[in-house]
Amino acid sequence: MTEGATIVAVGAGDPRRGAASAGAQNVDLAGRTLLPGFIDCHVHLTMSAEAAPRAIVSPADQMVAVLQASTNALRTLHGGVTTVRDCGAPHGIDFALRRAAEEGLCVTPRLVLSGRALCMTGGHGWHLIGREADGADGLRRAAREQLKAGADNVKLIASGGILTPGTNIGNPQFTTDEMKAAVDEAHCAGKTANAHAHGAEGIKRATLAGVDSVEHCYFIDPEGIEMMLERSTVLVATSAAVRNVVSYGVAAGIPSHIAEKAQSAISAHVSGFKAAHAAGIRLAMGTDSGVPFTRHGNNLDELKYLVEMGLSPQEAIRVATSDSAKLLKLDGTVGSLDEGKNADLVVVEGNPLDDIAVLCQRDKIRRVILNGRTVLDRDISAFLVGAGH
Ligand SMILES: [Zn+2]
To answer: How far, in Å, is the centroid of ligand 1 from the Cα of 289?
Structure first.
């Protein structure tokens, strides 16, 4: 039972007795499942899943990107995701989006924002979402800049990446001491820090620097798994990102340098993830939505991949709800159907515990409620908010 923006009671039995006197509305969920709103800890709302990502340069590009980010956010919400962490956006577009949502100009999931991703000079992402910085003092300053602008999280680039020409995905970027300075700033401000890392060395440096989560971890090795376990560092797999680049490939217009790097990583990603999961590493859900063909709104495809890689459906759902809320330090307000939490709810057709794939079909996401407000109701065949897409 919800009241305003809050879940006020959870339980079995006939709710009508209590509800009738309160004049409440009952919703029949026969054949359906009620779940907490899902949380995606790794998206890029300013990127729109184009085959070849382009830098946002001119003022006109920036204005279009704001509108794209708004549409991407709404698609995400309609896909059952009520909280996202954006892991790098240029020109303050993510902060502008939050302000617009606060002013009622658009509707977005709950936003956890990073501003620009911090990368070394020439590091991965410098041309798309990066803020180049070098040396511990440089990193400290760059982190403070993002926090000043409103960041809830400081994003670090700890290895080369798939989208940046000329960077080898296995190579480490930043020293541990450089990253430590930025992590320290984030934690002093009561915020989180995370790192993009593919290569084994970058994963270890980021973990030693004290980040809360390491993203991708495609080439994680046993020593890295051990280090993350010791420090309770969370792994955010972004399996969708590498799978989509590999399956669409150059035939769909993806530049060959991007397709080749993804191809070289995918088997290591699957085996590394399985080893990390078997070792008991903490997980949270992230997709990297916005990178080529990882489309906003299809975020829950990631749960299918997590199940393919060994999680039970129940485990995958927990990773994408309460475990992700914990990573984002939002577990006091969202991530589970508990009394007192925010009413972020999703109603799906069928039962994802029997078939996780129901979460991957947008027409099976019947209803989405954010803070007690219905933002999608497919039963009245209309989007209450936003255009039909
Ligand atoms: Zn990313």
So the answer is: 8
